């Protein structure tokens, strides 16, 4: 059976960074999906009207990458968090954790709002679905062209680095030209 899932490319990518901190200890242990959490202070790098939800894009950690990533930005309703978090999951296998390493992320697309789930299995299945859809979306040229932004400094939209350089203009042009929804098919 084919399932249609749409994703939204952000009209302007958002760059964040921070030092990887310990989260709630659920990613690897409970979910089997490790995250490289940004500190709570990194939330100030988001635009003031940023909506919570599940995003995807690119990340570098410890100067290596970029790697595909999917991230939750928000309250994680299933766990009833009292603290808003940014929890990137890098779509790559790593032998060690990243605590204390510098991480840069660039969010290029939006998957869905935060949701509550009936059980842990439903949450895990949704995360795996998000990972699959994100990976396919990031293979598209419009998202792939933005992976270099994972090496930039933070500061909100485009990390505040764009100015008027030719490279910046090209990146803006790519983002603006593809600020539409994409639909991906997958088999279940």
UniProtKB/TrEMBL annotation:
KW Nucleotide-binding (keyword) present: yes
An annotated Gene Ontology molecular function: riboflavin kinase activity
Pathway where it operates: Cofactor biosynthesis; FMN biosynthesis; FMN from riboflavin (ATP route): step 1/1
EC number: 2.7.1.26
GO terms, biological process: FMN biosynthetic process; riboflavin biosynthetic process
Record-annotated Riboflavin kinase domain positions: 9-139
InterPro entries according to UniProt: Riboflavin_kinase (IPR023468), Riboflavin_kinase_bac/euk (IPR015865), Riboflavin_kinase_dom_sf (IPR023465)
Organism superkingdom: Eukaryota
PANTHER family with a match to the protein in the record: RIBOFLAVIN KINASE, RIBOFLAVIN KINASE/FMN ADENYLYLTRANSFERASE
Annotated protein name in UniProt: riboflavin kinase
